[in-house]
Amino acid sequence: MGRPNQDFPGKPSFLDGIIFEEKADEVWICKEQIDTAKLPKLILHAKTKTYGTEEEQKRRDRDVILLEGIQRNTSKGGYNVVQFKLKDCGRLYPVDDAPSLQSLSKDYRKVLCCLTDTDVDIVNCHPTLLNHVLQCEKIAFPLLSEYVMSREKFWALHPNKRRWTELINGSRPQEGEHETVHNFYGQARGALLKLFGLPKFELLFKKGCERAAAKGKADQLGTCVSLLLSHCERECVTAAMRFLKKQTKFNINCVVHDGFHVKAKANMSKGDLERVARTVEENTCYRFKVQFATKSLDDYDKSILHAEEGERGVAPEGNDYENAKAFLAWLSDEGHVLYRVGKEVWWYRPP
User: Fold this and answer.
1) C-beta separation of 99 from 80 below 8 A
2) 217 with 80: CB under 8 angstroms?
3) Cα-only R_g, the chain
């Protein structure tokens, strides 16, 4: 399985390496390529869509602010330049909370960059990283190892695929859930207590407990494992991005925690992904063995490009230019074609 990489420059130990100190001042500058023609439609959708819960409403309100911010910041060429920097939670976030694709709801993000970007991410990220760390430290968590080998078998036991990572992060099993869910949770708690009881993790455990207290969370262990895996995730992703940065054909368009976007036209191959994975193994503290995969970004809910029938007459708030763009985009989606010849404009309507 491997051992912590004691020979990697600047990383004399796990905590001195990826936790708190590694490249804390490193800034990643990304030129997010934005499909500006679709922005007005997304703003319209976000402003007119209603949700059931208070949390969903807050998410919608935040999306409106982000979409309008991206619209303001995007250049005429369609680029939104964002700086990403390490935060104390272990992840890279936009400097000064700048509007970014990273922060948008997934479907909105996909709409704005599906024609130009390819998503590259770590397969089964957090479970794989935790399993690797535990095995390196010789701490047993048999059900996690099984999950990493064949997660589809576990997905069949629970309708929510995310349930298993929720259990790792401290979510308690509910009455009526499958026996394996309860056993998985019990093994997770036992393994994590042993892990954070090791001297090398004392500082991380202390910081995790402080974060839990500051956020009013009773489950300190869940916050600690989240902090650990966020740092491990970022270490792998930044190692991959540093490697790709040296390859002239790959540009990192956006950072999305467990992965990043590259230009679709770069056609990242299976061989490219394998080279990225080898680089991560060679340049991370725990010599993480991870698998990278590319994903298309066009699997979004197509209905978000349209207001609902009762809302079609609602125009997004904005200037005349923005509203005109929204109207023209709607015409195009409905099959209309506008063709200009000299000073004349011909309008072809669908049959």
Assistant:
1) yes
2) no
3) 23
For 83-137, the pLDDT digits (tens) are 999 888 889 999 999 999 999 999 999 999 999 999 999 999 999 999 999 999 9
Residues in contact with 285: Cβ distance below 8 Å, sequence separation at least 6, in sequence order: 4, 5, 8, 11, 14, 17, 18, 235
> What pLDDT, in 10s, does the model give residues 66-84?
999 999 999 999 999 999 9
Rounded CA gap, 304 and 282, in Å? 42
For the record, the structure tokens of 228 come out as 């650990």
- Phi first, then psi: what are they for 42, rounded to 5°? -70, -40
User: Pick the residue with more confidence: 350 or 96?
Assistant: 96
Written in H, E and C, the secondary structure of 123-141 is: CCHHHHHHHHHHHHCCCCC
Q: Give the N- to C-terminal CA distance of the chain in Å, as an integer.
A: 64
Could you tell me if 307 and 45 are in contact, meaning their C-beta atoms sit under 8 angstroms apart?
yes
Q: By the 8 A CB rule, do 33 and 116 touch?
A: yes
83 Cβ contact partners less than 8 Å away, ≥ 6 residues apart: 27, 28, 29, 30, 94, 95, 98
At 20, list the tokens: 């708190």
Per-residue tokens: 194: 């042993």
pTM, full prediction:
0.81
CB-based contact 243:26 (threshold 8 Å): no
Q: Measuring CA to CA, which residue among 233, 219, 254 is closest to residue 32?
A: 254
Encode pLDDT of 154-177 as tens digits: 999 998 999 999 999 999 999 999
Distance of CA 178 to the CA centre of its chain: 29
Q: What are phi and psi of 258, to 5 degrees?
A: -90, 15
CB 236 within 8 A of CB 122: yes
Backbone angles phi, psi at 82, to 5 degrees: -130, 135
On the question of pLDDT at 312 being above 50, the answer is: no
Q: Is 213 helix (H, G, I), strand (E, B) or coil?
A: helix
- In whole angstroms, give the CA distance from residue 167 to residue 186: 9
- CA–CA separation, 208 and 223 (whole Å): 6
- DSSP character for 34? -
